[in-house]
Amino acid sequence: MDRFIRGVLISLVSVLYVHTGHAAQTGTMGLAEGRAASTQCPNKTYLAGFAVQYDAVMSGLHPYCVNMAPDGSWSGGAQIHLDRPMSEANLGGMRKDLFCPMDFYALGFRGKSHVYGVHAIMHFTLTCQNLKTGALWEHTVGPPGNPSLTEWRGDRCADDAVADGVFGLVNGGTIIQFGFSCAQTQPAAKLARTNKKMRMGAAQGLGVFAVPTIQSPAQGARFFSYTSVPIKIAAPKGVAPVSYLVSLERKNAQGLWTLVTNLPVGAAEASSPSGYLGWGAAGSGRGPAMIAGPGTYRVSAQVSSPRQTEWSPPMEFVVTDPNKAIRKAPKMFGR
Fold it and tell me: Which of 281, 296, 311, 318 is disulfide-compatible with 251, CB 3.0–4.6 A?
């Protein structure tokens, strides 16, 4: 019966998050025992960390929340909401802040819980992300000594979201199970609105929301490192571009896209048979942002003059080192 009641409570918490406009929830870490508890950032703000009462275990979680600007940076300062605790705070211990740096938001978590007694979360790592750079930052709180703990992989919000609340299970005030509610970021929401306008414009035969088309590199194309990557762009219907702005991004070790460089490119060169060839090849005086090192990239473009358009859908391509067979081939013919 206790398990049935806990299941109903967890389901009610899930329904609450669906109806308050959350994009999704992460998975949870910790054992499924205790009563359901949650806290959420108000007024469509985002989680910038939280404060807990900590005495080897976590309790009394209070969220730090902040507004997000359209470019993903903080809009104003973060504020702690002492009137929104996830649970009551246990007696003893001291307050610990797991707080993201400026322009970072709570993204993911992992941790460890005690193996006997009350299976409290005792070791916790918060992962924060900067939406403009893709950089990650972590902060950890844990008990002294070496107690017996069960390690949990934790989870994180989706690529287009960050946390805006916490849910889970508690025993008294002690947190037993932990998860994030996640909301779509402002940059992702802006892109979704732009795509919707583009679809509406296309359906109505309008050119107002038209965007350029990346003709080269093609989706999934492969190039050798340190050589020019042809960037060829077709003008949007009904627009006579003078120049484009081309954005090149690279996927980092965490699987996140980070900006390499933005390139101003003349329309005549971009639409020429060879396309723009100014990015990729190594050469004297060329900085790393202009050289195609091995990795996974994507390119998008917008008309910058005479009238700015929205960004085109990105084309993803791969840059690899020439294989050994190609490097050795000239020697086979005595050259």
Answer: 296
**How many angstroms separate the CA atoms of 160 and 171, rounded?**
33
Tell me if the bond preceding 42 is cis, omega within 30° of 0: no
pLDDT (tens digit per residue) in 174-186? 999 999 999 999 8
Residue 251, CA distances (Å) to 81, 231, 257, 297 in order:
36, 19, 4, 6
From residue 296, give the alpha-carbon distance in Å to each of 26, 43, 131, 258, 319.
27, 38, 19, 11, 6
Could you check whether the bond before residue 306 is cis, i.e. omega within 30 degrees of 0? yes
172 and 33 in contact (C-beta within 8 Å)?
A: no
Task: Specify whether the CB–CB gap between 50 and 166 falls below 8 A.
Answer: yes
Residue 171: beta bridge partners? Answer: 174
Tokens of 62: 């209070």
Q: Is 243 helix (H, G, I), strand (E, B) or coil?
A: strand
pLDDT in tens, 5-36: 444 343 343 333 333 344 589 999 999 999 99
- One-letter amino acid for residue 97 of the chain: D
Q: How many CA atoms lie within 13 A of 124 on its CB side?
A: 30
For residue 324, report the phi and psi dihedrals to the nearest 5 degrees: -65, -30
Cα separation of 46 and 93, whole Å? 27
Residue whose token pair is 């060879």:
274
User: How far is 48 from 317, CA to CA, in rounded Å?
Assistant: 34
Helix (H, G, I), strand (E, B) or coil at 164: strand
Task: Answer whether 54's CB lies under 8 Å from 170's CB.
Answer: no
